[in-house]
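=== RUN LOG ===
request id: a7f3
mode: sequence -> structure
chains: 1
length: 123
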Amino acid sequence: MLEVKSYRDLKVWQLGMDLVHAVYEHTKHFPQSELYALTSQVRRAAVSVPSNIAEGHARESTREFLHFLAICSGSLAELETQLFIAERLQYLDSTALKATLGKCDEVGRMLRSLQKTLRVKLG
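=== RESULT ===
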């Protein structure tokens, strides 16, 4: 098993970064009128995912890491909802929605697995 020395070693963080990249690529095409509304919210929610993984990993305790992973899960649910909104408003086509939700699902599964592992560690 690979030793985790940095949050950058975590596959879930790496996939979170890929998710941010995908979201930024898609939101480039949102209407200019949404720049300070939905575009900003979608981007913030996406950025929150790997950011909270990194911050939680840097904390002093497993319990704190779990807290930040819970925040991360909430941001992921927020992002998914905003992506559905973007599709309903026809800012995002169904192919892009499906691909991005697939990334969200993968990150979500990895988050839940990491949370489960950390809870076992807590006892």
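=== NOTES ===
DSSP finds four helices and no strands in the chain.
The mean pLDDT is 95.
=== END ===
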